[in-house]
């Protein structure tokens, strides 16, 4: 993946002149072929010219899949109470169409429902002052950065209800605020999305809850 990004960038930036870059090919203990722009002992060096870049583009080695992919974590329902109803799922045609929200889920719930962290991490951004539709489509929100670098975002919260501060560490079940209907929201609901920072900005990534949205409250979690 790293090399793929590198080469894409090179294609864009190297336009009129000839591109030459040195890559190092090595094979790790598991037999996985690795290409890197860092030299390691025993690595085979070769130079890529611009015309060959596109050929290299196709047969790129598959990076080993990390054991702990973001998809592996199953999110507890981030609220207390319920059961509630999923009103818009991933790829929802109403508003889950752009890269930042494609895999978001909307759950209709009464305003004032306690919203809790579905995954531990550090609060990196909040908004708590927006009244009604306001200027920001997200309304009031809490953004939590998880330890794997992904971020969980809880949108449309009630004005003045956000109870965490930037820099604060939260664990699963930590109260974040109360649900609301602020920002670009057509009715009281929580919009919960998991995002990852990329070169192109924040993009949403698929996630799964660890039980059906319409399930009864999860008393094991205290909600
Ligand atoms: Zn939504």
TrEMBL record:
Keywords: Signal. InterPro entries: Cell_wall_metabolism_enzyme, Dup_hybrid_motif, M23ase_b-sheet_dom. The keyword Signal applies. Pfam families: Peptidase_M23. The keyword Calcium does not apply. Residues 102-197 form the M23ase beta-sheet core domain. This is Peptidase family M23. Coiled coil: none annotated. GO terms for molecular function: metalloendopeptidase activity. Residues 1-20 form the signal peptide.
């Amino acid at each position: 993946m790293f090399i793929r990004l590198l080469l894409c960038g090179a294609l864009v930036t190297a336009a009129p002149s000839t591109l030459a870059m040195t890559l190092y090919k090595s094979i790790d203990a598991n037999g996985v072929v690795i290409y890197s722009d860092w030299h390691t002992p025993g690595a085979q060096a070769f130079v890529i010219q611009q015309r060959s870049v596109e050929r290299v583009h196709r047969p790129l080695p598959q990076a080993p899949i990390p054991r702990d992919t973001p998809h592996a974590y199953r999110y507890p329902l981030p609220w207390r109470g319920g059961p509630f109803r999923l009103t818009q799922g991933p790829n929802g045609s109403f508003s889950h169409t752009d890269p930042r929200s494609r895999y978001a889920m909307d759950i209709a719930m009464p305003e004032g429902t306690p919203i809790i962290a579905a995954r531990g991490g550090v609060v990196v951004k909040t908004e708590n002052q927006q009244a009604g539709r306001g200027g920001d489509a997200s309304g009031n929100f809490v953004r939590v950065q998880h330890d794997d670098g992904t971020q969980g975002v809880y949108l449309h919260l009630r004005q003045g209800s956000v109870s965490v501060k930037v820099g604060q560490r939260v664990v699963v079940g930590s109260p974040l605020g109360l649900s609301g209907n602020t920002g670009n929201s057509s009715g009281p609901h929580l919009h919960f999305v998991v995002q990852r920072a990329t070169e192109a900005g924040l993009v949403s990534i698929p996630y799964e809850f660890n039980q059906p949205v319409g399930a009864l409250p999860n008393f094991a979690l205290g909600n």
